[in-house]
Amino acid sequence: MAALNGWWDDYFWGALVIFQVFFCSLGFMIIFGLLGAIAKLSANKLAHKVANAYTVAFRGTPEILVILLMYFGSAIFLTAVAQLFNPEVKFVDIPPFWAGTIAISLIVGSYATETFRGAFLGVNPGSIEAAKALGMSDIQTFVYIRIPEMWRIALPPFGNHMLSLIKDTALISIIGLNETMFVAKQAITVTGKPFTMYIVVGAIYLGFSTVVTLSVMGLEKFGERTTAGVK
Amino acid sequence: MIVDFTLIAESLPIMLKGIGITFQLLIISGFLGLILAIFLLLMRISGKWYLSFPAQIYIYVFRGTPILVQIFIIYYGLPQFGFIRSSILWSILREPMGCAIVALSLNTGAYVSEILRGGVLAVGKGLIEAGSALGMSAYQKFVYITAPIATRIALPAYSNDVISLLKSTALASTITIADMTGIARTIVANTYAPYEIFISLAIVYLIFTFILQKLFGYTEQYLGRYTKREG
């Protein structure tokens, strides 16, 4: 354990990066998932096809490939664009943070698409009819009836998606994100204790997963507070 | 942006040379992981705390940490200890391939055992009672009633896990293994053409996912042949 002295603060900042990636990608993941679900449920054939292609492509490709493609692909594209204006530019890239965040939220968003779609289909048709009978507009029905009913159905699988997001953060270290994996690599070159260093990384991720799992359990309880005796 | 088709035509056969490694990783770790999963499952449903508790801890740790961290702990971390380097295990852990197989098996075992447990818990109580009424022993009930039905119930979720195992094999490229992704990364490092290489490789993975899904779909139909209702 003595080898860890002096590295705790680096691990702390690395963990903070995991936290930031998690929150940003969580937001994007919900957006991609909702867009995908709405497209899949819409009557528009083109939207349906695009959403299907999205889920098939991102659920079937290895995560690391998507991350590498997002980072190097965007770098090539941006460099080409920059060279149009200034031929002396050699290399432009999106920061690994954003390339990675977008990549993992696209991946997990494709899983969330299916979850949200199922949850929207699981909303009780009687509730929708009741809303119509009360003269609610489509938007009101969506906000006050569909969303509050669907998030409870979606929550357990959604918790798993959040865990995937946390764990996929580790992959972003491959394109040079300065998170705990990266800290461990640096620490190993100095101390020569790879096992100790990577175990700390594992423990940090385990801590994050535990917090997410417990929060989802709490949210599930909160969601059931009004329906507890109904069944 | 011009897509370089000759480059794709040239590098696709080179990438496909890694197919053997990808399949070795998939099949060997899938098989070892399944055996581990069955052991973990038996420990969890044994009803004895000193068996089920360690299994629970194991599953919690391996599902709560990223597979990349697990691979790195095994490949970079374990040689830190002298006793591992002098043990019999060293002949496996010395090779990156051995490490990748060990890591992937340990990881997938934790996930699969939860899937199998879901299947076992979903077996109808009435069937097991019927077994008791017929005077079957606990062993007979498990082998002749619980196991066949649980297998059928767990299969759809298991097929998803095999697909995510296929995607995880791509991570073996991070520990110098020349699987399809590893070769692709070398080609991209030389040609700097991420779009062409990574997208064509993604399509290769998509084709394999599709084939796996079809295979499992047929198996599901076969196992469910008695459960279909006539007319």
Give a structural overview.
The complex is a heterodimer of chains A (231) and B (231). Chain A is mainly alpha-helical. Chain A has a single domain (2-222), classed as MetI-like (MetI-like fold), CATH 1.10.3720.10. Chain A has helices spanning 8-41, 45-60, 63-85, 96-121, 125-133, 138-172, 180-191, 194-223. In chain A, helix 1 (8-41) runs antiparallel to helix 2 (45-60), helix 2 (45-60) crosses helix 4 and helix 3 (63-85) crosses helix 4. Chain A is flat and about 70 Å long. Chain B has one domain: MetI-like fold, CATH 1.10.3720. In chain B, helix 2 (19-44) packs across helix 7 and helix 9 packs antiparallel against helix 11 (194-223). The model of chain B has no long low-confidence stretch (mean pLDDT 90). The interface between A and B is large, with 44 and 43 residues.
Identify the CATH class of chain A. Mainly Alpha
Count of domains of chain A: 1
Runs of chain B in which pLDDT lies below 50 for 5 or more consecutive residues are none
Radius of gyration of chain B: 21 Å
Largest interface: A-B, 44 and 43 residues
Uncertain ranges of chain A: none
User: What distance separates the N and C termini of chain B?
Assistant: 56 Å
In CATH, the topology of chain B is named MetI-like fold
Number of helices of chain B: 11
**Per DSSP, what share of the residues of chain B sits in E-state strands of 2 or more residues?**
under 5%
The amount of helix of chain A comes to over 70%
Structural class by SSE content of chain A = mainly alpha
- CATH 2nd-level architecture of chain B: Orthogonal Bundle
* Structural class by helix and strand composition of chain B: mainly alpha
Number of strands of chain A: 0
Question: N-to-C SSE series of chain B?
Answer: HHHHHHHHHHH
